[in-house]
Amino acid sequence: MAPLTTPTGQPFRLLTVNKAPERAFRLVGKVANDLQDGGVVLLEHVGNAASLEEVESKLRELRPDVLMAASMWTPAESSHAFELGRRIVGENLITHAIPEGMQVEKGPDFVVQYLKDTLPSVIRQNLDSKLADGRAGEAVEGGKL
User: Fold this and answer.
1) Taking the complete model, does pTM exceed 0.90, yes or no?
2) d(CA 66, CA 31)
3) CA-to-CA distance for 65 and 121, rounded, in angstroms?
4) Residue 40 — φ and ψ, nearest 5°?
5) Pair 44, 12: CB distance under 8 Å
C-alpha cells in the first residue's frame, strides 16, 4: 500500500506549536523519517510556533495541513491554537495535541513512538470524516486520501 498523502499526492505539511523549536524539529524529523521509511505517511515539518502568540502568523504564512500542539500546552491552550487554525486555514485542518505532560513524564523516545503509533490514524480518521462530509475537496485516487 502506498504511503498516505494529501489528496494531491503531496506530503502533509505539519506546523508544530512547541516552546523548544529545536526539539520539535528533531522529534518530528525522526517521526516523519520513520513513517516515510515504513511507507505509512508522508509528512513535511514546515515550521514551528514557539508561542501561542506566534501561531496566527505561522498559520497565515505556512498554511499547514496538520497543526500539532506539544505536551507543554494545556488542553485549553491547544484548543485555542486549533480554533485559530480552523479559522485561518479552514475546516480541513487536521489537529492533534500530544497529551499534556507526556514529554516530561515519559521522555522524548516515548513521544516519538506515541506519534508514530497515533499520527497516521489521526490523519486517516480526519480525512475519512471529511470525505464522508464532502469537505476534503478532491476524490480519493490511487489509494491516496
Assistant:
1) no
2) 14
3) 15
4) -95, -55
5) yes
